[in-house]
Design goal:
- The longest helix is centred in the last third of the chain and has 22 residues.
- Helix 1 packs across helix 7.
- The protein is α/β, with parallel strands linked by helices.
- It contains eight helices and 14 strands.
- Strand 5, helix 4 and strand 6 form a beta-alpha-beta unit.
- The protein has two domains: 138 residues, Rossmann fold (3-Layer(aba) Sandwich), CATH 3.40.50.720; 159 residues, Lactate dehydrogenase/glycoside hydrolase, family 4, C-terminal (L-2-Hydroxyisocaproate Dehydrogenase, Chain A, domain 2, Alpha-Beta Complex).
């Protein structure tokens, strides 16, 4: 069956992340139909009203409504932001058991409605829940996109831009692996205008920057309770890449099927995104130290996956 055309989006979960995504979506004019689904119907109705009042100033027309899983029937994208939130002192992997149960029921309801589009998963632990979505939906793996390390990579590029007084859009570098504590920066190829960055930084500086990226969510959660603006904008970027068939490289979560010697694991890696979802994992090189760290990240995620899907 051909993938559902158009740009209708169903957003499941209207908490801080979902609402931030919806706001970014409307501001960028990426869809002409947005349906919000959440068990908290009163809040969702309020979000619909509040967002709708800004449509007159949006760059393009969009219809926003409160709906149900039945609205997924003709949706091009279902974006999942629902689930238990990360609490102070809790790692993303600590959330796994609670959220896998939620996802099993949720994905079944979406597929029972006849959904034939692309899933984007933002709920943490995003790598594990992307894998769960793939298992529960039985859709081709390219149609399941986790946010992976897209936000971590944005944090990495921002911090480097501050260090080198250069626009973050001109800094090229990736964080790969788990969206969590075992992630790693690819220092060996990070660059500005083709000039490698690593050789301009001390080992202490590189360690400090990597730690700041890794711990950013914990710091934000301790300061304001949750992170949502950055991931909301990152979700909009993935959405734009899909709907505009951009064939752009983004560090998202996808299933490895032999790339770099690994299989059967959803993990953050640079991948080419188009209207079919993940076209393929992009080529990227790692030095020996990075290969070891990436292997550790893969092992971390596969150990959790094995507990859930033995």
């Amino acid at each position: 069956m051909n993938i559902t055309p158009g740009n209708k989006i169903v957003l499941v979960g209207t908490g801080a992340v979902g609402s931030s995504y919806a706001y970014a979506l409307i501001n960028q004019g990426l869809s002409n139909e947005l349906v919000l689904v959440d068990i908290n119907t009163k809040k969702t109705e309020g979000e619909v009203m509040d967002l709708s009042h800004g449509v007159v100033y949006a760059p393009s027309a969009i219809k926003i409504k409160h709906g149900t899983y039945e609205d997924c029937t003709d949706a091009a994208l279902v974006v999942i932001c629902a689930g238990a939130a990360q609490k102070p002192g809790e790692t993303r992997l600590d959330l796994v058991n609670k959220n896998v149960k939620i996802f099993k029921s949720m994905v079944a309801s979406i597929m029972n409605a006849g959904f034939n589009g692309i899933f984007i998963v933002a709920t943490n632990p995003v790598d594990i829940l992307s894998y769960a979505t793939w298992k529960f939906s039985n859709l081709p793996k390219e149609r399941i996109i986790g946010t992976g390390t897209i936000l971590d990579s944005a944090r990495f590029r921002y911090l480097l831009s501050q260090t080198f007084a250069t626009a973050p859009t001109s800094v090229h570098g990736y964080i790969i692996g788990e969206h969590g504590d075992s992630q790693l920066p690819i220092w060996s190829t990070a660059n500005i205008s083709g000039s490698l960055i690593a050789e301009k930084l001390s080992e202490e500086q590189k360690t400090e920057i990597a730690a700041k990226v890794r711990n950013a969510a914990y710091e934000i959660i301790s300061l304001k309770g949750a992170t949502y603006y950055g991931i909301g904008i990152a979700l909009a970027r993935i959405t734009k890449a899909i709907l505009n068939n951009e064939q752009v490289v983004l560090p998202i979560g996808t299933l490895l099927e032999g790339e770099h010697g690994y299989e059967d694991v959803f993990i953050g890696v640079p991948s080419i995104i188009d209207r079919t979802g993940v076209k393929r994992v992009a080529d990227f090189s790692l030095d020996q130290d990075e290969k070891k760290k990436f292997a550790k990240s893969v092992e971390t995620l596969k150990a959790v996956q094995a507990r859930i899907f033995p």
